[in-house]
Amino acid sequence: MNESSPNDSDHEALLRVLVVDDNRGAAEGLAMFFEREGGTARVAEDGVEAISQVEAFDPQVVFMDLEMPRMDGYEAAQHIRAHNPRIVLVALTGSNDEKAIQRTVEAGYDLHLAKPSTPAALRGVLERYFPKY
């Protein structure tokens, strides 16, 4: 639908979330969660798609897996951060040791969340960075 509607301004006010995970089902589940929370969400399956979606969708926050084919979450985060320093980057990973956390910080992530993340943890991220969402 390309026509303007009275709700276009409402749509623009929604929090834009990009979920990046090579597990399509997991990514779509998270996207549905963020939409139920009042945002608008898109899904990408790897770092290459993430970069493309960031350019097209201009999300305010990206929740990204780290281990993915073609381009991992570390490389994608470095690229995204270099071109969009204000975007909130959240690493979603099963690797939660100190070395993994340090690597996400070095790649430019704002937060490192364990997978699977609870709804409360995900809401906490939104409330921390977007208190009026």
What would you note in describing this structure?
The protein has 133 residues and is of the alpha/beta class. It has a single domain (13-117), classed as Rossmann fold (3-Layer(aba) Sandwich), CATH 3.40.50.2300. It has 6 helices and 5 strands; from the N terminus they run αβαβαβαβαβα. It has helices at 8-13, 24-36, 47-57, 73-83, 98-107, 119-129; strands at residues 16-20, 40-44, 61-65, 88-93, 111-114. The protein has a 5-stranded parallel β-sheet, sandwiched between helices. Helix 3 runs parallel beside helix 4 (73-83). The radius of gyration is 14 Å and the shape is globular. The model is unreliable at 1-11 (pLDDT under 50).
How is the secondary structure organized here?
Blueprint: H1 8-13, E1 16-20, H2 24-36, E2 40-44, H3 47-57, E3 61-65, H4 73-83, E4 88-93, H5 98-107, E5 111-114, H6 119-129
Parallel strand pairs: 1-2, 1-3, 3-4, 4-5
Helix pairs in contact: 3-4
What does this entry show, briefly?
The protein is of the alpha/beta class. 47% of the residues lie in helices and 19% in strands. The protein has helices spanning 8-13, 24-36, 47-57, 73-83, 98-107, 119-129, and strands spanning 16-20, 40-44, 61-65, 88-93, 111-114.
The CATH fourth-level homologous superfamily: Response regulator
Write the H/E string, N to C: HEHEHEHEHEH
Low-confidence regions? 1-11
Residues in helices, as a percent range: 40-55%
Strand content: 15-25%
Q: How many strand elements?
A: 5
Cα end-to-end separation: 25 Å
Using brief descriptors, characterize the structure shown:
disordered N terminus; single chain; Rossmann fold; five-stranded parallel sheet; alpha/beta; 6 helices; 133 residues
